[in-house]
Amino acid sequence: MIAYRAMIDVPRELVQYLGRLLAAERRARGTRRDTRALTCFHQALLVLIWFRKAEDLTLLAAGFGISRATAYRYRDEGVAVLAAQATDLHTALRRAAADGWSHVILDGKLFDCDRLTETTLSVKGETIDAWYSGKHRDFGANIQAVMRPDGLPIWTSAAMPGHLHDTSCARELGVTAALNWSAAELDLPALAE
What we know:
- 46% of the residues lie in helices and 19% in strands.
- It contains 8 helices and 8 strands.
- Strands 1, 4, 5, 6, 7 and 8 form a 6-stranded mixed β-sheet that branches.
- Mean pLDDT is 85; it is low at 1-5.
């Protein structure tokens, strides 16, 4: 295997941190020692390379000497372990207020995704592809993000179907209510498009 530093430009401490999270997850699942194709460190490395370089998982699998299916499973485990570390929206808003930020920003983005077979009814009562955005003329997942004024995201939502408007997503996910709460209780208003 190629040296770590040549593979990815993230701190070794980040790879070790994710490796520790993966080790804890393996212990919680009752995975026996030496039954996995990769160590926790190398699984963390695979996940971070995928995040950082958007590398094709088939190529990553070959580079790590594992099957494509195993690479997908390892990637999904890593993403789930990282997602479990995320704070909820109220905690993120409390922290932004405690850090002295004057306001937060809410914005949504459509991220490309493959076509999915899920359908829904439009406002006109017609059957449409749930993940197709007419505005963008493409399939995608709508993700809402709350950011500090300097643009650093402090919270991101779960993926919502692309046919939904940002406002609908924010309302359905409870983001609007949380931002109203933060404006009233924490004196932390929100700007939204």
